[in-house]
Amino acid sequence: MAVLGVDLAGVESRPTGLCLLKGLKAETWIAWRDEEVVEAASRSRVDVVAVDAPLGLPKGRKSLEERSPYHLRRCDRELLERGIKFFPVTLGPMRRLTERGMKLKERLEGEGFKVIEVYPGGAQDVLGIPRKKAGREDLLEGLRGLGLEGPSGEASSHELDAATAALTAALYLAGLHEELGDPDEGVIVMPRRGLSPREVRAALLSLASDP
User: Fold this and answer.
1) In the chain, which end has fewer C-beta atoms inside a 10 angstrom radius, N or C?
2) Which of 48, 40, 37, 171 has its CA nearest to residue 101?
3) pLDDT digits (tens, 9 = 90+) for 172-205
4) How many helices (H) and strands (E) does the chain have?
5) Cα R_g (the chain), whole angstroms
6) Which domains does the chain have, with CATH numbers?
């Protein structure tokens, strides 16, 4: 089984990280256009596409353009309750990312792919590994400590967040996840709290052997 992690940029002129994860093997690269994301998913026939971008609007908000008091989704509030920092969907550049994410989700689902929203920074907190702000090398070491093979020492922070997104998708397939939020707004898929590196590695290996 294969999954695709996407660290989506707000605009196509900025780099988007991609990670194809098959078992423990992670292949990462940089893309730019939505078409490249769809092509990567189609080429590898992935089971899940995990996108690091908001994929839904708060209840009560009809669009990103309207003036509205609704800025947080239920999943956002649950992140806050857990002490996980994030940027709201309506904050500055997040508007463009949210708009792009929602359109990409619609396109991928139209092609028959399962699409989930993930948050690599939060997933890294849950898994007990550093976020990219601590340093790209520390994040890479943390991912390798969980069993991932493949992100090279030259992988960018965008690619490593994409690898975290793909890892979250693999844990989703293995049932080792939590879903935060209201399905009517969209949920964020997070790794189950308390997982050990051994459990993560075992989950990846089990998916690698799944026919």
Assistant:
1) C
2) 37
3) 999 999 999 998 888 999 999 999 999 999 999 9
4) 7, 7
5) 16
6) 2-62+70-208 (3.30.420)
